[in-house]
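in:
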């Protein structure tokens, strides 16, 4: 596949970076933000129909970066179940290895992807994953909304390392401002449109914004997204990221922050809740909306769903336990794990880790519970046995039988498999 690169202007910041770049712009970056337009790549889209993979789908690993933005205790916990793919420059690989090894991380589950990066926000610049019309998993890239060429190149580095197809669309985006349900419905704040000149808008207040055909067409052509819900950021923060106030927990469940009525953003947050209450989920019903109380702007929505665990950023606050209880109520079959860190209201755990899908799983179709490349009555029988507790599914069987991706095997999944078999 031929990749058409825009002319890339390499620039050097005139500041000496003694610490991490901020999640927002530095003064020099703001002055040079026009360079973002020069970092884009464009390829043909994947073969359709395309499906954008959601965070709560099965993951084989996570993408982080060294120097770390998260604690080694968090890395240690994640490495008990999945691969840690660590972006690191060759000169720092030994330091990265020693840091994790000395912390007791399972180094058998650590792999290094060599290459320079500019910051540790792998969520923001990391790859967006799709399943194409052939059932193959690939990366569809975007132009990172910061003038940071090394970070912008990260998805291509991941594609090369994992040997998966790479595609790229010519639009500006950032991962912290993107949520998808895995079935063609996605959401973001206004910068999904305002940072793309083709949209010709600076609307900072509408819920929702008027559609931008340029971006919406890209979302459908490259990601299979047919419903893109773009709303003004109710937090009214500099970062304008959706993960600072909301999260898809499953195809039918949403988490949105709540605040006291005295909070300056109360009215706007409730307006967003009212809007999403009218959105029909891919299951055909209204979303079940869970609220997590954030009176002091705690970043509780900035969590990571990783297979059967949820990693929640906590602040050693009196409200931490209540937040964890909300997650447990919304996701009863998940293990809810709190982690402290250098969190802020606009930057926490979700911003610094990016899931990598279980590529092996996608060689089978949803509903092919017995993995024989056919969906028939045998799959129905096996799914019924799982629901009744007569047999125990493997991880892959559990994922293939969980047709609505809600983390629970029940009669609804059996009905969906039956519908597949009879062609409805």
């Amino acid at each position: 596949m031929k990749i058409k690169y825009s002319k890339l202007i390499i620039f050097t910041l005139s500041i000496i970076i003694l610490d991490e770049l901020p999640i927002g712009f530095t003064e020099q970056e703001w002055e040079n933000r026009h360079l973002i337009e020069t970092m884009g790549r464009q390829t043909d889209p994947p073969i359709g129909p395309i499906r954008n993979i959601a965070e709560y789908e099965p993951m084989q690993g996570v993408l982080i970066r060294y120097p770390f933005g998260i604690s080694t205790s968090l890395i240690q916990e994640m490495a008990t179940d999945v691969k840690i793919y660590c972006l690191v420059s060759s000169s720092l690989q030994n330091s990265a290895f020693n840091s994790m090894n000395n912390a007791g991380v399972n180094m058998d589950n650590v792999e290094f992807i060599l290459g320079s990066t500019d910051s540790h926000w792998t969520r923001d610049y990391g790859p967006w994953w799709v399943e194409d019309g052939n059932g193959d998993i690939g990366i569809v890239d975007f132009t990172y909304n910061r003038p940071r060429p090394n970070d912008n190149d990260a998805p291509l580095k991941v594609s090369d390392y994992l040997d998966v197809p790479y595609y790229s669309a010519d639009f500006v985006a950032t991962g912290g401002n993107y949520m998808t349900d895995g079935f063609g419905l996605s959401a973001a704040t206004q910068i999904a449109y305002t940072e793309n000149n083709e949209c010709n808008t600076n609307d900072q207040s509408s819920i929702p914004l008027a559609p931008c055909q340029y971006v919406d067409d890209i979302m459908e052509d490259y990601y299979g997204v047919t419903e893109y819900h773009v709303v003004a950021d109710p937090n009214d923060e500099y970062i304008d990221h959706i993960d600072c106030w909301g999260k898809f927990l499953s195809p039918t469940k949403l988490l949105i922050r709540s605040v006291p009525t005295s909070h300056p953003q109360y009215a706007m947050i409730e307006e967003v809740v009212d809007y999403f209450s009218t959105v029909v989920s891919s299951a055909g019903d209204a979303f079940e909306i869970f609220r997590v109380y954030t009176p002091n702007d705690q970043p509780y929505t900035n969590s990571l769903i990783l297979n059967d665990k949820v990693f929640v950023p906590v602040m050693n606050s009196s409200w931490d336990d209540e937040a964890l209880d909300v997650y447990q109520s919304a996701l009863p079959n998940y293990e809810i794990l709190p982690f402290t860190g250098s969190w802020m209201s606009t930057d926490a755990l979700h911003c610094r880790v990016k899931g990598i899908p279980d590529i092996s799983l996608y060689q089978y179709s949803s509903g092919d519970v017995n993995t024989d490349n056919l969906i028939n009555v045998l799959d129905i029988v096996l799914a019924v046995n799982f629901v009744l507790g007569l047999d125990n599914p493997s991880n892959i069987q559990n994922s293939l039988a969980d047709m609505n991706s809600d983390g629970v095997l029940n009669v609804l999944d059996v009905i969906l498999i039956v519908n597949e078999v009879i062609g409805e």
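note: The radius of gyration is 21 Å.
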